[in-house]
Design brief:
six-stranded mixed beta sheet; two-stranded antiparallel sheet; 195 residues
Length: 195
Amino acid sequence: MACSAASAAATATAALISSNPKAFSSSSISPSQNLTIPRSFSGLRNPLKSQVPRPVSLSRGSRSRKSFVVKASVEIPPLVGNTAPDFAAEAVFDQEFINVKLSDYIGKKYVILFFYPLDFTFVCPTEITAFSDRYTEFEKLNTEILGVSTDSVFSHLAWVQTDRKSGGLGDLKYPLIADITKSISKSYGVLIPDQ
């Protein structure tokens, strides 16, 4: 699922936080699997800087091991493999205002955390409602869904109280978090300050 607008694609992201980090360990990958990087791949446009590069093997079980260096920056740490920044915020769920704290899910559930630009835009409502429509499938996987935008809880409430046919979301089966201070978006590196 991807947002249709370019600016939304730049600001929208999803993070999967595991309550069992060993569930995705390298031992779960079969030795015959290889990661192939096309020759046309030229790397990052703005390479990240690291003081201590670490080689990572791309090919398991082969005689000649290929490797590349994972680089991280102090200014913008990569989120994959790092501990997700914790937050506590107000949200709208079941037409009520609630408090959500990310750390409450640690060790209990997986979390899909996604960001979208603004309420009442025609950029991502189909993706937002699709998560809700398939909520029971995520529930069976012990996974909670949390949506975040920089709108207020009042805007979120109005959007879920508006019928889908009228440009709203209708009732959602998961919370929409208000990040009016933009602190959550900043900590996850998805905020474009001038937009």
